[in-house]
């Protein structure tokens, strides 16, 4: 079997279309496995994985841990808040101490753009980027595309609008790369202040009118306003943001067609999306979470095949 073209998963921009196809086919197999009464396979019994989270996470952290356990890997977990990072230990010292315990694969979330690339140049382990600052979140984009493929049959030719805080989003950039690699059309929609200036250089159109964006698309991927990354005000008030860019059932009912609603989480209910929409049958938000386990099993499995034992 042909393997991945990359040695680490640092970002979607390093992958090609064959890599995505291979990850999806492998995830199909693992999705079948995790729906069996015995949800575990012995594939990675000889592999040790460290999950290093320097930023908060619910879905990604739990999903990686579950994926690793379903593959029978040995797993150690590290959260910066309860570690010696608080005493001033550097990233490299932290990781080298963990690697001294004979770790094969490091899954890392970090607040700094390029933290995964930096690590891959300095340590002898496979690195999986679980989100680096406002840059990339590759496994999220893979599970998002996989969920679109599952719901609509394919990603090719589909029209996807990413709505919300594009500027601070690693999910947006990874999704743009992944969707375009698979032949989808991508637009972004949000306040001008939350759309990065470089976006058109990626072949992405900007639509500032939410109604027009939703009329155009097959799928709306709705993003959270990331207040924690904002040092200045990007829009007058949350109330105004919701009025102009919030997705509610009335807007969807007036479209005259049923679009698919996605959200990577965590959701600000009542801000970028109402509870009614998030919990409706148009929403595939929990399917995304379910698919995250199979996608992460596939990525870990494929990278582990490259490790010489
Ligand atoms: N989607 C996502 O990355 O969620 P968490 O921050 O909870 O991992």
CATH architecture of the largest domain: 3-Layer(aba) Sandwich
Which structural class best describes the helix and strand composition? alpha/beta
- Average per-residue pLDDT, rounded, comes to 95
CATH superfamily (homologous) name of the largest domain: Aspartate/ornithine carbamoyltransferase
Head-to-tail CA distance between termini: 18 Å
Count of DSSP strands? 9
Number of domains: 2
Radius of gyration: 19 Å
Which structural traits does this protein have?
single chain, 309 residues, alpha/beta, Rossmann fold, 2 domains, 5-stranded parallel sheet, 11 helices, 9 strands, globular, binds phosphoric acid mono(formamide)ester
Outline the structure in words.
By secondary structure, the protein is of the alpha/beta class. The chain has 2 domains: 12-136 and 289-304, Aspartate/ornithine carbamoyltransferase (Rossmann fold, 3-Layer(aba) Sandwich), CATH 3.40.50; 138-284, Aspartate/ornithine carbamoyltransferase (Rossmann fold, 3-Layer(aba) Sandwich), CATH 3.40.50.1370. The chain is 38% helix and 14% strand. The chain has 11 helices and 9 strands. The chain has helices at 17-33, 59-70, 91-99, 115-122, 138-152, 170-181, 210-216, 238-245, 249-253, 275-278, 285-304; strands spanning 48-53, 74-79, 105-110, 126-132, 159-163, 185-189, 205-206, 219-222, 260-262. The strands form 2 sheets. A 5-stranded parallel β-sheet has the order 7-6-5-8-9, sandwiched between helices. It has a 4-stranded parallel β-sheet with strand order 2-1-3-4, sandwiched between helices. α1 (17-33) packs across α11, α2 (59-70) crosses α11 and α5 crosses α6. It starts with 16 loop residues before the first helix and ends in a 5-residue tail after the last helix. The protein binds phosphoric acid mono(formamide)ester (CP). Phosphoric acid mono(formamide)ester binds next to α2.
């Amino acid at each position: 079997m042909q393997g991945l073209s990359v040695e680490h998963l640092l970002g979607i921009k390093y992958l090609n279309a064959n890599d995505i196809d291979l990850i999806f086919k492998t995830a199909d197999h693992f999705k079948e496995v995790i729906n069996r009464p015995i949800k575990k396979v012995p594939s990675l019994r000889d592999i040790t994985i460290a999950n290093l989270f320097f930023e908060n996470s619910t879905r990604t952290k739990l999903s990686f841990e579950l994926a690793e356990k379903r593959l029978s890997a040995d797993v150690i977990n590290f959260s910066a808040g309860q570690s010696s990072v608080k005493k001033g230990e550097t990233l490299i010292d932290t990781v080298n101490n963990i690697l001294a315990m004979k770790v094969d694969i490091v899954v890392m979330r970090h607040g700094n753009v390029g933290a995964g690339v930096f690590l891959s140049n300095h340590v002898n382990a496979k690195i999986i980027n679980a989100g680096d600052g406002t840059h990339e979140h590759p496994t999220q984009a893979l599970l998002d595309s996989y969920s679109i493929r599952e719901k609509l049959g394919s990603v090719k030719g589909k029209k996807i609008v990413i709505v919300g805080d594009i500027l601070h989003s690693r999910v947006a950039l990874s999704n743009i790369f992944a969707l375009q690699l698979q032949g989808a059309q991508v637009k972004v929609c949000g306040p001008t202040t939350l759309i990065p200036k470089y976006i058109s250089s990626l072949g992405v159109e900007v639509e500032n009118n939410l109604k027009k964006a939703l009329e155009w698309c097959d799928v709306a991927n709705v993003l959270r306003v990331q207040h924690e990354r904002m040092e200045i005000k990007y829009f007058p008030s949350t109330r105004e943001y919701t009025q102009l860019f919030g997705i509610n059932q009335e807007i969807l009912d007036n479209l005259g067609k049923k679009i698919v609603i996605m959200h990577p989480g965590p959701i600000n209910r009542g801000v970028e999306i109402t509870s009614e929409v998030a919990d409706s049958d148009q929403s595939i938000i929990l399917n995304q979470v379910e698919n995250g386990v199979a996608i992460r099993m596939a990525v870990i499995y494929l990278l582990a095949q490259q490790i010489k034992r």
